[in-house]
Design goal:
Elements: E1 6-10, E2 19-26, E3 31-38, E4 42-46, E5 55-60, E6 65-69
Length: 70
């Protein structure tokens, strides 16, 4: 489902990381936004300023990472 204003994220990584790195890139791989966030509980990310298109959200800890498109 396309996101237009708010991207809702929830979950928690395994391991000892208290904080995670969240990186948003556009479809060409250009970094749009990088944040340090608490080891996820719930996060609402305002994406209303992004131009319409396909983006990737990568969340990384000291042990693992995952990428999702939106």
């Amino acid at each position: 489902n396309p996101a237009s204003d708010i991207l809702h994220l929830s979950g928690q990584f395994e391991g000892n990381s208290e904080f995670l790195t969240l990186e948003i890139t556009d479809i060409t791989g250009r970094k749009i936004k990088t944040l340090t966030i608490p080891n996820l509980s719930n996060l609402d990310l305002n994406i209303s300023e992004f131009t319409a298109g396909v983006y990737c959200c990568k969340i990384s800890s000291d042990r693992e990472s995952f990428v999702r498109r939106f």
